[in-house]
Description:
Layout: H1 3-25, H2 29-45, H3 51-71, E1 84-92, E2 97-100, E3 103-114, E4 119-132, H4 135-138, E5 146-154, H5 167-173, E6 179-183, E7 187-191, H6 196-218, H7 223-232, H8 241-250, H9 260-276, H10 281-298, H11 303-320, H12 327-341, H13 349-369, H14 375-402, E8 404-406, H15 409-433, H16 439-469, E9 474-476, H17 482-500, H18 506-521, E10 531-535, E11 544-547, E12 553-556, H19 569-580, E13 585-586, E14 588-590, H20 596-599, H21 602-608, E15 610-611, E16 614-616, H22 624-635, E17 640-642, E18 647-652, E19 655-660, E20 676-681, E21 684-688, H23 694-700, E22 712-714, H24 726-732, E23 736-739, H25 751-759, E24 763-766, H26 767-770, E25 773-777, E26 782-788, E27 793-796, H27 804-811
Parallel strand pairs: 4-6, 12-14, 13-15, 14-16, 16-17, 21-22, 22-23, 23-24
Antiparallel strand pairs: 1-3, 1-5, 2-3, 3-4, 5-6, 5-7, 8-9, 10-11, 10-25, 11-12, 18-19, 19-20, 20-21, 25-26, 26-27
Helix pairs in contact: 1-2, 1-3, 1-12, 2-3, 6-16, 7-15, 8-16, 9-10, 9-11, 9-15, 10-11, 11-12, 12-13, 13-14, 13-17, 14-15, 14-17, 15-16, 17-18, 19-21, 25-27
Amino acid sequence: MSEIAKTRLTIAASTFYIIGVISFFTNNIFVCAFLALIVLLIALKKDFISGKSACIFYLLFAIAILNCHFQIKNFDALSEYVYTNGTIKGVVDSIPTTNITGRTKFYLKTDEYNTDKAHLQNIKARTIVTLYDRDENLAKIKIGDRIELSGKLRKPVSAKNPSQFDYANYLKNHKTFSTFYSKGNNWKIISKPDKFSGKFLQKLNDKRAEIINIHKKYMKSPNLEVLGGIVFGDDAINPPDDIKSSFINSGLLHILAASGMNVSIIFGIWFFLAMRMKLNYRFAILIGAILVAFYTLMTGMGPSVLRAALMIEFVLFGKLIDRNADGISLVFFVALLLLLYNPAMINDVGFQLSFIVTFALMFNCPPVLENIKNKFGEFIAGAVMIPVIAQLWAAPIQMFYFNTFALYSVLANLAITPFIMIISFLGFLGSIIAMIPVKILTDKACMIFDFILNPIVYVLIDISNYFSSLPNSLIATAHPDLFKLFLYYSILFVIGFSIRNKFKDKRLLYLIFVLLMVFFFSFIKIEKNNLEVLVFDVGNADSFLIKTPQKKYVLIDTGHGSITSSFSKADAIINKYLKDNGIKALDLMILTHFDSDHSGGAIDIMKTVEVKKVLLNKDKDDSKTTKAITKYIKSNNINVFEANNNEILLEEHDFKLISYTPDFKEDKNDNDNSIITLLTYGDFDMLFMADGGIRSFDKIKKYLPENKKIEILKAGHHGANHVVSNRMLKFLKSDVAVISTGYNTYGHPRKETLRILSKNNVKIYRTDLNNALKIISDGEKYEVYKFNTSNKEFSKDIERRADYVSDIIEKN
């Protein structure tokens, strides 16, 4: 068999295995199996492959699915005991990450868990631990330590909203199905590692920390963090927020996390020097292989580093036995090996970026560069092509996951190339010398290398700051759908194929033209002028996004945000949705009152999108939330006005949004004085009660349209007592009640409230049980859709019976 035939066989075999893995994770096994069969039958008919090869390819597709089935689990021994408190024992399975003062996180390979009612021994499970304590205490925890902790075992958060990051699924990809929280003196280290692997990893990590501490003597922040990220990986030292922001905006964030580029640089410079010193060829190859393996271990073996390391090691092994390896087939073969070992790697963004960009460079660069005879010209062409091609192939993935595009990334990467080469090699070389167990030598080595590197790192940071400060350095983008991604990469692939073919095949040019036309037309959307109301699941809080028939956007309340919490649900859920859907402005934001569960995320929203108008409650308190919001609005000159009773806020053809204010002067409270909002579109009406109850309703009842059905009621105060009554529901004649609620200690929603709704034949939707909701109306009919956590899509609720409420009460 020829080398070309072997290369094609490797690529095809790996591709069918990868498609099998993708089909498993996207729940499209039968569709992909059918398409794979059709492709193989066509290939057989055209004599592109033999029958034996076709069987092997289809078998690899099946093996991929079987491997996923056996390796990917949905639970472990701890899953049954989430929401319990107890004591857990196990071995620290990752390098502890301390990005926030007084907090560290690490994976724990668990073998014992004890509660008041259960005693689990010799189990095999994995959890992620969040531990709060003084930094000096947390620093004692090392990878490989056997540790005991007392605290709370919890279920990780799933994505219950469109666009929301699925933390539970992320942990599932790391074979983890629970989280454990502990603090203070409720933990202790039982023993140090006794196995060789544990001892080796701990020793290696200790040495890394020791080297970083030596660097701290001669290099200060932020240079230290930048050097640490480049040489040791992104878990070595957390960079300051301003530096991280600068590198994100300039498109250089990838250099702060040790990557495949660093592996290539370190080996390339070593091999260049070895040849100049006229070292034995095989000796140079062998030492280079050892350096690559050592660097990979030092950085924690991230996907991009592991990919580059495996590729280089295979190439070097081939050199040692006088065999050359084809770059593209090697990319596919390494992907196959990694996915055989752990199919869930395919869900890692770093894995996707690493392999796609590497394939793109291998596929596109050689055909162009091999035609340039001048060495200097080849070097310049390569220096320009590499960042351009990398950006073209990486940009859609960055948009898909992060909703951003760094406009000057290509120029910034071109500018830093010589500096990153010097920093990577000298930083790594200095760190190797620093491992020599002679203190005076290690000190002097770090001092000399840091003296050389300090000004170079400064230049690197200045380059990042320059491009970051340019206008529109980071552009917010919408979330591209899978069809657009498929078209985009098809176009790039066919262009690359044409380059390799030297544009001799005119059919490829016609195909590029057709694909471009389809790609551009795919951006044209024909939408109906329907009303849409999105009910976000933000826990025991409120947030609703209204899309009017004329495509205007109104946000009622924001859920919790960064004003009172270290984690902003407004940012993680609402802002992510706005970015994904290309919503850059809100025509109106209504803050019904200043409780943090209703307006805590207001500033996070205003920082992310343009808010043209803000409607505030007249009643203002001295809370932290109130002060922060009013200060931000004033300092940013945002158009703000106070709510009035029975006032039209927004009006279109057949559409109105009206505010009502109970305006209690005596015996008042924030909840009862919440802004109440009525949405009317043709014959469809929805009443948003905020935290108002029966008392508030009675106050504004006379202003509501008489003898008109309010189809949907957003029940007040998360379904607490006294928010609905028989009299109120008889007046409204509602079919549906929406209760925005989540885990809480108040007993929301109350059984009495659910009972009253059930008695009046009102269908209940609860965000804690039904996830996010979408209500769509054409002005006559309406439909309610529930967010499906499996396929991450809204599905129509076909069950509209009122007796469904009895099930809701039972679950409560």
